[in-house]
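Recall the central idea of this unit: under ordinary conditions, the amino acid sequence of a chain determines the structure it adopts. In this exercise we apply that idea directly, starting from the sequence alone.
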Amino acid sequence: MTALLSPLLLAAALVATALGGPMLLRGAAPALMRTPRTAVALLLSAAGLWLMATAALSLLLAWLLTGPAILPAPVAGACQRCLDAATPFPAGDLIDTMIPVALLLLLPAAGLLALVGLGIARGVRRRIRNRAVARGIADRSRRAWVQGHQVLLTRDPHPTALSLPRSLGGIVISESLIDALTPPELAAVLAHEREHVHGRHHLVLAILDALVAPLRGVPFLAAIVDAVPHYLEIAADDAARRRTGTPALASALLKLGEPPASSTAVPGGVAGALHAAGPDRIGHLVAPTKIGAAAAPASLLGAAGITLAVFTAAIHLPYLSVILDGCHLAY
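Accordingly, the structure predicted from this sequence is:
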């Protein structure tokens, strides 16, 4: 029965991360905001690691449980040879159940295929919608050069600044924005949007929407989906601040306020459009929160990540090794 301790520990780590992860992400935010690009990479990696660890739990149980055979004898024999070659547990630790081992082996692959299929479908729908909206913007805009940046210039009465993927138009601003901002403020906003386009932030959001957003039922993954766009905005703020200075950027954000609920520039909205607007970031620009209080949550997040990574490597690597070796046993 001691062999069951491993799946129980892994299951506990998965549940604890799924439920406690959002609180830890909020607590670690002051530290993550200092390095937003790294934060985005870590959050995406954490989502992938959690999913791989979930798959590892099924593969771990396949080492420990036996059940009725549902595959033809030759196939079942090959699967059993792979299991025997990969498992670190002695045969005496096996537990007889009514669960077919083949299901435990196929479940991770089936889940991955389902997630990829759903992601492709979501991505296609997203692309079709965005192309249609982008065409609508282009029809009511004109190409112009503003302070050295090529932009789509709209007649939206509300000061508007946003970015689309480069292939769909790139930077979009309104004529009213030019009237509302001083030249340094306008330069800061354009630098912010330029960073979104050149940093391929829209691709990050597309991947997030396709592969992680469908799993928002997991609180930790939902928190990652909500946090990544915020850190992308902060990354763009940092790039703009380096080019134009903090006062100009903070002043521009204050004038822009929140993104308008409806705008003639983006009728129906573009999935993944990134807006410069958002006064909630001004505090971070002017007086960043001290990271001292974030040390404990960040450390706990790191510990959870290391725990899941160790389990994932310890389970996936033996399977990979025996598959590459052709599941041969050294008798």
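The chain has one domain: 2-324.
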